[in-house]
What does this fold into?
Amino acid sequence: MRNGKKQKFFIKIPHSEFRISKVLKEELMQNWRKGTWIILLLFVATGGTGCGLCIAVGAGAAVGVGASEYIGGELKQAYAAPMERTWNAVLQTADELKMKTTEKSIDNLDKNRVVKGRTYEGTDFELSLEALGKDVTMVKVRIGVFGDEKASKTIHDAIAKNLKK
It folds into this structure.
């Protein structure tokens, strides 16, 4: 301190670094929002202990956990369903939408699964599943090289419908 005044230090950040930090901040906020939905779902489910109806209603109403996000040509959506149930819904959706699958893969720990192939229009697609927890699965949809948000949304809608069955 000089003359009883506090000194302020400024760090000059180049423009490109500022853009990166801004993007990281946005991603952190989106992840925080997703986490809030998962915590809310768990709170609702455990708050109804002793009342099976409350748990069933809470789980049924929250098939899609949080909002979907479209980033970099990929539409992501978390579902309140275990991996196996979501996997079956994804395969059923591919059949319903006349998508020809060319590859299905499951990793050794069964945390990630992938379905690849072509849509009925001939565009490549990739459906990736990631287990976020015992009863929460993230599904990522990419159509083509650059993505197709409308087609990806159609696929997610069909997956949600199949999970409700």
The chain has four helices and six strands. Residues 6 and 12 are 19 Å apart (CA to CA). The first strand starts at residue 64 and ends at 71.
